[in-house]
Amino acid sequence: MSERGQPVVNEKASAGVSASTDTSARANANASASASTSASTSTSASASAAELAHAIEVLAQQGLVAFPTETVYGLGADAESALAVERIYEAKGRPSNHPVIVHVTPEADLLYWAATVPPEAQLLIDAFWPGPLTLILKRAAHISSVVSGGQDSIGLRCPSHPVAQALLRGFAATRASGQGGVAGPSANKFGQVSPTTAEHVRSEFAELFAQGMPILEGGATDVGIESTIVDLSRLDQGVGPVLLRPGHITAAQLAQVLNQEVAAPDAQAPRVSGALKSHYAPQTPLRLVRASELESVLATQTAKLAPEQRIAVVVHTAQRIVPASNERLDWITLPNDPAAYSRVLYATLRALDQQGYSQLLWQTPSTGLEWAGVQDRLGRAAAGFS
User: Fold this and answer.
1) 24: helix, coil or strand?
2) Helix or strand or coil: residue 231?
């Protein structure tokens, strides 16, 4: 595995899997290098004090700011300004009934944002905040429903990224209440692949960037997929904790802290970010393939290719396939570890999406709770093509 778990070309990797030719190896290396370079070149970069001050001023004036978190980069606005939040929806092309998450400081008074903070929420806060966990609570009456898509709930998260915390603290200091919150869904067009570097955001919102929207640099994200979401808004109705979106924090970790299992989503669960069937999707058709079926699927799909077409094959475990020389198949290997895999997932998707492939054949993620976040993201990314 390369630095920070970056994807690698499987030229001399585990048994049987290799780039099919020197030509495909070079093409494959370009895709992997694009993902790894965007991460490594920004790893040590961080927004300056002047850039943070300008971003805080923009937020105070109801403008948009892109900022890093440990999960993905967010597109932020003043959570208490309906106009500012509506600008997020407009920029992303996001349906107005699709909630956004409100980011707060570690010192925030949650009762400013939520009507109640139940003991279960406090247990999770003590265990996982600051960090990649969003809690769905009953929304305080004075907070606009625009952040929750018209629902009576609110999603709250305290990110651990130092740039995000500096932004949030600086913005909160401008408010008379001292309770500034930043509504911040992922900084990409609705339904598409989330950004994990500032460069991804600049590419996604080139027009807004050219118009002066601040994009705070914070390096490549450490987690790489969106936060785990837990619903605690219906405890007074007898509905226990519900896991609405899996992520870096697993169901087992949540259950250990809560001393009870977390339930799967039900029909009455609140709508939350990233829960649509098709989401996180590249432009290139993506198909998930079990390892046991990969050889036969490759044979079928290769036979259908036009002379100028190519397929990227993404795996994370050793395969017994030794592909024949074929310039139209490029093999990419991701880490066989859920945390390292998550870290490079979106960067790899974005890099391959720019390489002109006719199709991405992607090995189905491993099973197990620790892989649930990856399974969820890739399943939704492929859903629109099935």
Assistant:
1) helix
2) strand
In DSSP terms, 229 is beta-bridged to: 134, 245
Predicted confidence (pLDDT) at residue 40 exceeds the cutoff of 50: no
Name the nearest CA neighbour of 321 among 13, 11, 17: 17
What pLDDT does residue 2 have? 40
Q: For the residues of 287-319, what is the DSSP string, one character each? A: EEE-GGGHHHHHHHHHHT--TT--EEEEESS--
Distance CA 33, CA 200 (A): 15
The candidate with the shortest Cα–Cα distance to 152, out of 99, 198, 190, is: 99
First and final C-alpha spacing in the chain: 31
DSSP 8-state assignment for residue 281: B
Arithmetic mean of pLDDT, 148-166: 97
Q: How many Å apart are CA 195 and CA 187, to the nearest integer? A: 6
The one-letter amino acid at 58: V
Peptide bond into 130 cis (omega under 30): yes
Confidence of residue 384 (pLDDT cuts 50, 70, 90): confident
Query: Residue 273 has what pLDDT?
Result: 75
Residue partners of 141: CB distance under 8 A and separation at least 6? 115
Q: Which of 305, 354, 353 minimizes the C-alpha distance to 329?
A: 305
Rounded Cα distance between 98 and 35, Å, is 29
Q: Is the pLDDT of residue 23 over 80?
A: no
What tokens does 150 get? 């018209």
Within 8 A by CB and 6+ apart from 292, the residues are none
The percent of residues above 70 in pLDDT, for the chain, comes to 85
Sorted by sequence, the CB contacts under 8 Å of residue 128 that are 6+ apart come out as 249, 253, 257
* pLDDT tens-digit series, residues 300-310: 999 999 989 99
Distances from the Cα of 220 to the Cα of 32, 40, 41, 145, 198, angstroms = 15, 7, 9, 32, 8
Region 275-284: mean pLDDT is 79
* Tens digits of residue pLDDT in 309-350: 999 999 998 766 655 557 889 999 999 999 999 999 999 999
User: Closest by alpha carbon to 99, among 85, 109, 112?
Assistant: 85
Q: What is the dihedral of CA 220, 226, 227, 230, to 10 degrees?
A: 180
